[in-house]
Amino acid sequence: MGSVNYNTGSDLIDLIEHLIDSGHDVKGCEDGQEAELLIFKEHFDLLLLDVNVPFIDGFSLVESIRDNGIKTPAVFVTSLNTTKDLKRGYAVGGDEYIKKPFDMDELDVRLMQIQKVFNLKDDVIILPDGKGFDPVTHMVNGKKLRKKESGILHYLLRNLNRAVSAQELMDNLWDYDDVPSNATLRTYIKNLRQVIGKEMIVTVHGQGFKIEA
Q1: What is the pLDDT of residues 70-127, one digit of tens each?
Q2: 16 and 39 housed in the same domain
Q3: Do 99 and 72 share a structural domain?
Q4: Given its phi and psi angles, is residue 172 left (phi above 0), alpha (psi -120 to 50 degrees) or beta?
Q5: Of 98, 117, 136, which closes a domain?
Q6: Is 124 in contact with 133 (CB distance < 8 Å)?
Q7: Which helix (H) or strand (E) holds 201?
Q8: Domain check: are 53 and 31 in the same one?
Q9: How high is the pLDDT of residue 122?
Q10: What's the confidence (pLDDT) of residue 196?
Q11: Domain around 132
């Protein structure tokens, strides 16, 4: 998902790094004027906007692009927390409002909800029990998986009904110099089962793990 994010300093860097790690394509801006030029120049799926930034504040920016017919979903991230601020954010055309401080898990959940509402993604995988799994945001029905746990789940789903050995998982999901121990891999599997259900991942003696349709 393409996103425009603008904030200032280290906050912006941390936010961009998190979004990239979560699988998003990101372009960051440090002020509203730069963001406005980029929005009019390129297409984005979602805008993640701080309100208090130099030159053009987030509220004014969204009001401007809405007046020019740009309907890209916009999420405000701000320390402004009065009811008046909230009302203004939605009145100018914002679609979601996240109050600072927030943790990244909350951000991921909010973004996933925006993606569903605006049908921005069509690659959510339905697990055999009906749960939705998004391998990009690493979310399963609103719960965030660690990146490696998400990778294991995605690999098992791509090999549905086939037992996948521990060695195969290591060969495909880890770099050569970063291969985990068997105990660490079992811990990832255990954590996965706690989220998606113990019965979902079957242990096949002498062969590995599999998910059955």
Answers
A1: 888 899 888 887 888 888 888 999 888 888 888 888 888 888 778 777 766 556 788 8
A2: yes
A3: yes
A4: alpha
A5: 117
A6: yes
A7: strand 201-204
A8: yes
A9: 53
A10: 93
A11: 125-211
Instruction: From 20, 189, 208, select the one nearest 5 (Cα to Cα).
Output: 20
Please answer whether residues 32 and 61 qualify as being in contact, where contact means their C-beta atoms are separated by less than 8 angstroms: yes
Q: Residue 187 in 3-state DSSP? A: helix
Geometric angle at alpha carbon 156, from 152 and 160, rounded to 5°: 170
**Residue 58: CATH number of its domain:** 3.40.50.2300
Task: Answer with the one of 69, 95, 117 that is the final residue of a domain.
Answer: 117
Provide the 3-class DSSP secondary structure of residue 141. Answer: coil
Are 34 and 53 within one domain? yes
What is the model's pTM? 0.53
Residue among 21, 121, 144, 15 at smallest CA distance from 73: 121
**What is the rounded distance in angstroms from the CA atom of residue 5 to the CA atom of residue 190?**
35
d(CA 165, CA 204): 9
Q: Which residues neighbour 152 within 8 Å (Cβ) at sequence distance 6 or greater?
A: 169, 173, 188, 189, 192
Total tally of structural domains belonging to the chain: 2
Question: What is the spatial distance between Cα 86 and Cα 84, in angstroms, rounded to a whole number?
Answer: 5
Of 7-16, 38-47, 68-77, 109-118, where does mean pLDDT reach its minimum?
Answer: 7-16
Distance CA 35, CA 126 (A): 36
How far does Cα 201 stand from its chain's mean position? 24
Q: Hey, what are 129's tokens? A: 């029990």
Domain shared by 11 and 112, yes or no: yes
95 and 66 share one domain: yes
